[in-house]
Structures are given as structure tokens and as C-alpha cells.
């Protein structure tokens, strides 16, 4: 039989228990509050660290872009570190000026992308228009791509008083045709422009062909036609001459296509042109390129797609149009009025 405890004892025991419970609860609340404060402090610290890391990452990205590194760590644009070591000393000493120019050119070795916003342009322009001959002379020391910044600086500094200097150097430095065109000196350069175009087999900048075309000189039309057929950059040559009254331009297109259709470089470009003149093998070549690679990853493909859609009425993906072609290639004909390929009856 359970022994009964005195009431006073029970009351005292219960009161003590309640007091202990109240004390434990307060302690727990204090501990929780302290832990929450510590967590908040830790989160704030983590947030600051994340912000610092993000800023560091963005700073590194900016520095990398300024220094000319691409996403794979390869040099692509200007090398800011090298350029920062080159100081312009306002001097009239030809040797110091020459060294300054050469140092900038050498710092650009290995650069793979160029912009008129590259720091080399402003740096080279610091030599002033009085030293334009030194800039032109420097073009002989390197290849055309490494002349990019020099040419940009020349365009900035050149004025009418330098016209004779530019014209005299044009036969040796064909890239100066960009300055000729920018300043509107094509008529003054007419003799040189035509003479160099007659020199078969040599490469001429696309701007050279555009400059000759701008003269609209009937004497130049046979030369432009021949350069389109057998010269360099036939695609860009065609874009420059297509609106001129050149005799039998269609025949020139077909001849250029036959010469270049198996060429890895010019074949794809000329296929776009020959397709517009009704060559079915050119249409097939265009479809082959479009269905072999992602259209958004290739400049050629991005150029081809709109031209293809002008030559066919069928719509859909490149693969859809290829299927249409495969199903109808034996009966296809080219409508010269609409300039479209249509399936025969």
C-alpha cells in the first residue's frame, strides 16, 4: 500500500520544480538568443565574404579583358601590362619617336582581336600629325594585321595637307586605301587604284575594290570583272561590284563558281552568289553547309540562311528544306523572273 506524503511536502516539492523549470526555460531562451546572434553575425560575415569574392571575380574579369585574355586564358586583345610600361616622352627626337612606335607595335604581337578602341590607337596618335611619316614607315616593319593600330592612328591624324604623302605611299602600303576612302580621296588616287588592279595575282584589300567601284569608271569594269573571277575575296568583291553595269556579270559569277566551288574557303561564299543565279549545285552546297553546322555558330551560315529563303518558297528548318530538296531535286527548275527554285510538275 502506497504511503501518503504530507500535503506541505508535496506543495513545497511542486513549487521547487516549477521554479527550476522556469529557470531552465529562461536559460534556454538566452542560449537560443545568443546562438541566433552568432548565426546572424556568421551570415553577415559570409555575406561580406561572398560580396568580396564577387567583386574580386569581377575585377579579375575586367583586368583579364583589359589585358586581352579570353575565357580560356589565351591572349586575344591588347596586353595592358606591356603597354603600361611604354611612356610617351614629348620629344622631337626622331629616334625616340621611332622607338616609341616600334615598342607599341611589338607589344601587339600575338593579339588576335582588334578594335579602334584599343589603347594602342590613342597611344600612337600621341606622336602627332607632324610624325605621320614615321607611322607610315613603321608599316614596313610588320604584317598587315599588326599595322591595324598604326592605320587607325593615321586616319585620326591625316588631313588634306598629308594627301600627297598618303598618295605617294599607297602603291607600297595598300592598306592606306582605308585612309583614302575615309578622306574621300578616291579620285586623286585613281591612277594608282587602277594600276594596282591591273597587276594580276596580287592581293588587294576589299576596301581597294570598293574604292575602284566608287569611281564608276567604265575603264575599270573589265578589271573588276577579272579580279572577281580570279582574284582574292570574291564574295566581298561581288558585293562591291554587283550594282555596276559590268558586262556579263552572270557569266563571271558562273566562271568564278566553277573555279572555286571545291575551295574550302571561297566555295561556300560563292555558293551563295551562284545560287542566286540559278545554279542547282550551288543550292545543294548551301544546304550542305547549313545542315552540317549550327547556323548561329557560323558567320557563313548566318549569311546563307536569308539568301536561301530568297531562293525557295518552302519554309521550315534547314533540315526541312533539305528534305524538300532531296524529294524534288530531279524536277527542280529556276524561275528567272522570281529568282526562285521551284519543283517541276
The quaternary structure here is single chain
Order of helices and strands: HHHHHHHHHHHHHHHHHEE
Which percent bin holds the helix content? 55-70%
| Termini gap | 114 Å
**Rg measurement, Å:** 37 Å
Overall 3D form: flat
Strand content: under 5%
Count of DSSP E strands? 2
Biggest sheet layout: 2 strands, antiparallel
Structural class: mainly alpha
Mean pLDDT: 84
Q: Unreliable segments (pLDDT under 50, ≥5 consecutive)?
A: 7-15, 17-23, 59-75
Number of helices: 17
Strand order of the largest sheet: 1-2
Task: Walk me through this protein's architecture.
The chain has 345 residues and is mainly alpha-helical. The protein has a domain at 63-157. It has 17 helices and two strands. It has helices at residues 7-67, 80-84, 94-107, 119-125, 132-138, 148-157, 163-169, 177-183, 190-198, 206-215, 221-230, 234-241, 249-260, 266-276, 280-290, 299-311, 318-328, and strands at 332-335, 340-343. It has a two-stranded antiparallel sheet. Helix 13 runs antiparallel to helix 14. The protein is flat, with a radius of gyration of 37 Å. The N and C termini lie far apart (114 Å). Mean pLDDT is 84; it is low at 7-15, 17-23 and 59-75.
Structure, briefly:
With 345 residues, the chain is mainly alpha-helical. The protein has helices at 7-67, 80-84, 94-107, 119-125, 132-138, 148-157, 163-169, 177-183, 190-198, 206-215, 221-230, 234-241, 249-260, 266-276, 280-290, 299-311, 318-328; strands spanning 332-335, 340-343.
Amino acid at each position: 500500500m502506497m504511503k501518503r506524503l504530507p500535503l506541505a511536502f508535496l506543495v513545497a516539492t511542486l513549487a521547487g520544480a516549477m521554479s527550476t523549470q522556469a529557470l531552465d526555460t529562461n536559460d534556454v531562451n538566452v542560449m537560443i538568443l545568443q546562438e541566433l546572434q552568432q548565426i546572424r553575425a556568421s551570415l553577415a560575415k559570409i555575406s561580406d565574404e561572398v560580396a568580396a569574392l564577387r567583386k574580386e571575380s569581377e575585377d579579375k574579369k575586367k583586368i583579364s579583358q583589359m589585358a586581352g585574355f579570353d575565357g580560356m586564358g589565351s591572349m586575344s586583345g591588347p596586353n595592358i601590362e606591356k603597354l603600361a610600361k611604354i611612356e610617351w616622352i614629348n620629344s622631337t627626337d626622331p629616334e625616340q619617336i621611332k622607338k616609341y612606335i616600334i615598342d607599341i607595335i611589338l607589344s601587339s604581337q600575338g593579339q588576335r582581336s582588334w578594335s579602334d578602341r584599343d589603347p594602342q590607337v590613342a597611344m600612337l596618335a600621341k606622336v602627332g600629325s607632324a610624325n605621320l611619316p614615321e607611322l607610315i614607315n613603321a608599316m614596313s616593319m610588320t604584317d598587315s594585321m599588326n599595322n591595324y593600330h598604326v592605320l587607325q592612328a593615321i586616319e585620326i591624324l591625316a588631313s588634306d595637307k598629308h594627301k600627297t604623302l598618303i598618295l605617294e605611299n599607297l602603291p607600297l602600303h595598300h592598306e592606306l586605301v582605308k585612309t583614302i576612302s575615309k578622306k574621300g580621296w578616291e579620285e586623286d588616287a585613281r591612277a594608282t587604284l587602277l594600276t594596282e588592279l591591273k597587276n594580276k595575282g596580287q592581293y588587294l584589300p576589299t576596301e581597294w575594290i570598293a574604292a575602284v567601284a566608287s569611281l564608276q569608271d567604265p575603264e575599270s569594269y573589265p578589271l573588276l570583272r577579272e579580279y572577281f573571277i580570279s582574284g582574292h575575296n570574291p564574295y566581298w568583291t561581288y558585293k562591291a561590284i554587283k550594282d555596276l553595269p559590268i558586262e556579263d556579270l552572270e557569266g563571271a559569277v558562273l566562271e568564278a563558281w566553277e573555279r572555286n566551288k571545291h575551295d574550302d574557303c571561297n566555295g561556300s561564299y560563292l555558293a551563295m552568289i551562284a545560287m542566286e543565279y540559278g545554279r542547282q549545285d550551288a543550292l545543294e552546297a548551301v544546304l550542305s553547309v547549313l545542315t552540317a553546322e549550327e547556323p548561329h555558330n557560323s558567320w557563313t551560315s548566318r549569311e546563307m540562311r536569308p539568301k536561301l529563303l530568297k531562293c525557295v518558297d518552302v519554309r521550315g528548318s534547314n533540315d526541312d528544306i533539305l528534305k524538300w530538296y532531296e524529294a524534288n531535286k530531279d524536277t527542280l527548275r529556276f524561275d528567272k523572273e522570281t529568282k526562285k527554285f521551284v519543283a517541276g510538275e
